From TrEMBL, chain A:
<keyword id="KW-0472">Membrane</keyword>
<feature type="transmembrane region" description="Helical">
    <location>
        <begin position="21"/>
        <end position="41"/>
    </location>
</feature>
<feature type="transmembrane region" description="Helical">
    <location>
        <begin position="150"/>
        <end position="172"/>
    </location>
</feature>
<keyword id="KW-1133">Transmembrane helix</keyword>
<protein>
    <submittedName>
        <fullName>ABC transporter</fullName>
    </submittedName>
</protein>
<feature type="transmembrane region" description="Helical">
    <location>
        <begin position="179"/>
        <end position="198"/>
    </location>
</feature>
<keyword id="KW-0812">Transmembrane</keyword>
<feature type="transmembrane region" description="Helical">
    <location>
        <begin position="61"/>
        <end position="83"/>
    </location>
</feature>
<feature type="transmembrane region" description="Helical">
    <location>
        <begin position="230"/>
        <end position="251"/>
    </location>
</feature>
TrEMBL record, chain B:
<feature type="region of interest" description="Disordered">
    <location>
        <begin position="300"/>
        <end position="356"/>
    </location>
</feature>
<dbReference type="InterPro" id="IPR003439">
    <property type="entry name" value="ABC_transporter-like_ATP-bd"/>
</dbReference>
<feature type="compositionally biased region" description="Pro residues">
    <location>
        <begin position="333"/>
        <end position="345"/>
    </location>
</feature>
<feature type="domain" description="ABC transporter">
    <location>
        <begin position="2"/>
        <end position="227"/>
    </location>
</feature>
<keyword id="KW-0067">ATP-binding</keyword>
<feature type="compositionally biased region" description="Low complexity">
    <location>
        <begin position="346"/>
        <end position="356"/>
    </location>
</feature>
<dbReference type="GO" id="GO:0005524">
    <property type="term" value="F:ATP binding"/>
</dbReference>
<dbReference type="GO" id="GO:0016887">
    <property type="term" value="F:ATP hydrolysis activity"/>
</dbReference>
<comment type="similarity">
    <text>Belongs to the ABC transporter superfamily.</text>
</comment>
Length: 256, 356
């Protein structure tokens, strides 16, 4: 069983269902549109900020503000890519065609990851440039120190969110269960844990909190986060690896 | 060729498949028969490496399924018509299967044509009727031009024309020297298509025999009698050493005697007969007798004895399993030697069927 055959097959699968287009499309549109909107508000509110807040003002990070919502569409993308197989019964046909379950899972994930990265990177660049154009005099330039890293990092962040969701969906199989856990986790729980001082120490190690550090260019004043941009992304990668390995082990052991 | 050796699958306490050993040979259609819940689908899933056996082994042409390179070229399977993504077109569904096994794209159009779905090839599968879904599943099985084909309940949901089509398809595939393994819970369907028969009940092998042998061994013949002087007739029959069974509706059934003899016996004693007819039990009935003790979901609950559950047809029924006649208390005779008797709990199940 050549892996290239399976990759080609998975590409056919992913491009031939409507959910791919609308989840990735929604992720891009929401991220860019919300980023532009928040950039515009930030520009208008800039003069009202305190001195400390002005020092921490991070135009790059602000243009990525839409990702908090856009990532939800990527979660749906990641979950559906995997759990569609289970909810439709296609998994039995798929595994009969490709009984090497590792080849099957990693080919599927490779195709979906590449697609998510392409969309994530384009989205990240568009969100950055549109956001900066709205920010006017407060804007950052792509040539500034750390900015290019943050913009590419935005694409990586979106990709990793999708891969994490694929891993979780492989473990849980059901789309409803996967979304029911991932959506509130990323939209509410993580934000709450990260902002309440009692749980902040723990919350900052959650995948999205740690991973989004890569999109930061200006470190906030009296920031006590114990990792840098790449360290944060590394923490997120660890979470993703745990989810993917967990999914692989369960897929390997379970009856289809 | 598919070889099963002691194949076993246990879900917790429940033995879904219990030590199955048989071989599916090329060039013929092998019917895989059993009541609902007998373990047919579980067995087929294990053949395809989807479920892991608790014990035992199954090999496809001598190899384990997951060791096959491009398995669709060895064995094509239709498991259920729903095993596909409804949002994908028929063409793309087959294309992704073909690509995963290095099957050329042109083959997709060929199999779509074979099953008659060319005109809806670009339509999404969720708009398909059950019969169309079944045809698409069969197209997927044929895709790799495999030597072995496996169909799980293929006629489900097909219209008469579709059923006719799939029967001929299976026969022609076998005639080409391929191995064809098809499951069903309908004996009548198998009688029309299968050359060889594997019968299971509650996961256990009940029969592994040629269709011709099965028919010969299981076609019970008996004589049906009806008389207004029933009590006298019973006495006379008893006196002549003939045992009759109450069959409901005032009729009596006699196994193993010729109708001529019974007619002459009645005439000798001046008994009026309203009916004297030789009967042949259907294969469906034989199948139900064979599997009666292993039917998982009875319409009526009742204590189910286990008269030689692993007895192949041909094993004499255990006498202890015989119940007493329902109305007059006439004891039932030892049945035809070739078919195991139904246990008491299932007799009503069988007679329900006869009325229907």
């Amino acid at each position: 069983m050549a892996a290239t055959q399976v990759v080609r097959s998975e590409w056919t699968k992913i491009r031939s269902v409507a959910s791919t287009v609308w989840t990735l499309g929604l992720a891009a549109v929401v991220t860019v549109a919300l980023g532009v909107l928040i950039s515009w508000f930030s520009k208008n509110e800039f003069d009202k900020l305190s001195d400390n807040e002005k020092l921490s003002f991070d135009p790059t990070f602000i243009s990525f503000a839409g990702m908090s919502l856009g990532q939800l569409a990527l979660i749906v993308f990641g979950v559906l890519v995997v759990s569609n197989e289970y909810s439709t019964g296609m998994i039995r046909t798929s595994l009969a065609a490709v009984p090497q379950r590792g080849t099957f899972l990693f080919s599927k994930m490779a195709v979906a990851t590449c697609l998510a990265f392409a969309v994530g990177l384009i989205t990240s660049f568009v969100a950055f440039f549109l956001g900066q154009s709205v920010l006017g005099v407060h804007k950052a330039s792509i040539g500034d120190s750390g900015v290019l890293r943050a913009v590419i990092g935005g694409g990586l962040y979106m990709t990793l969110i999708a891969v994490f969701s694929m891993g979780v969906a492989t473990m849980l199989r059901s789309p409803m269960l996967s979304l029911g856990i991932l959506m509130p986790f990323f939209f509410l729980i993580s934000a709450i844990l990260g902002n309440v001082s009692a749980t902040k120490k723990f919350g900052q190690f959650l995948p999205d909190q740690a991973g989004s550090k890569i999109m930061q260019v200006v470190t906030p004043v009296d920031d006590d986060v114990p990792y840098g941009p790449w360290g944060g992304l590394g923490i997120m990668v660890l979470w993703v690896l745990v989810a993917v390995v967990g999914g692989y082990v369960l897929l390997k052991r379970r009856d289809a | 060729m598919i070889e099963l050796e002691g194949l076993t699958k246990r879900y917790g306490e429940k033995m879904a498949v219990n030590h199955l050993t048989f071989t599916v040979r090329p060039g013929i259609v092998t019917g895989f028969l059993g009541p609902n819940g007998a373990g047919k689908s579980t067995t087929m899933r294990m053949m395809l490496g989807l479920d892991r056996p608790t014990a035992g082994d199954v090999r496809i042409d001598g190899q384990h399924y997951d060791r096959l390179k491009d398995p669709l070229r060895y064995i094509g399977a239709l498991l259920d018509a729903k095993a596909m993504h409804g949002g994908r077109s028929a063409f793309n569904h087959l294309l992704c299967l073909a690509q995963s096994n290095g099957i050329p794209r042109g083959r997709v159009d060929e199999v779509l044509d074979t099953v008659g779905l060319t005109s809806v090839a670009r339509k999404k599968a969720k708009g398909f009727s059950l019969g169309m879904g079944q045809r698409l599943g069969i197209a997927g099985a044929l895709l790799g031009d495999p030597r072995i084909l496996m169909f799980d309940e293929p006629v489900n949901g097909l219209d008469p024309e579709g059923i006719h089509w799939i029967r001929n398809l299976m026969k022609s595939l076998a005639a080409q020297g391929r191995t064809v393994f098809v499951s069903s819970h309908l004996m009548s369907e198998m009688a029309l298509t299968a050359d060889h028969l594997v019968v299971i009940g509650q996961g256990r092998l009940l029969a592994d025999t040629s269709m011709a042998d099965f028919i010969r061994q299981n076609s019970r013949s008996y004589v049906r009698l009806r008389s207004p002087q029933r009590e006298r007739l019973l006495d006379v029959l008893h006196g002549a050493g003939v045992t009759a069974v109450e069959a409901g509706g005032g009729t009596l059934e006699v196994d193993g005697s010729k109708s001529e003899y019974l007619g002459e016996l009645a005439a000798e004693h001046g008994i009026v007969l309203h009916e004297l007819s030789p009967q042949q039990a259907s294969l469906e009935e034989a199948f139900m007798q064979l599997t009666a003790e292993s039917v998982e979901y009875h319409a009526h609950s009742g204590t189910v004895d286990d008269p030689g559950a692993d007895g192949a047809p041909g094993a004499p029924g255990a006498p202890g399993a015989w119940g007493t006649g329902p109305a007059e208390g006439a004891s039932r005779p030892p049945g035809p030697p070739q078919s195991p008797p139904p246990p008491p709990g299932s007799s009503s199940w069988g007679s329900d069927w006869k009325k229907g």
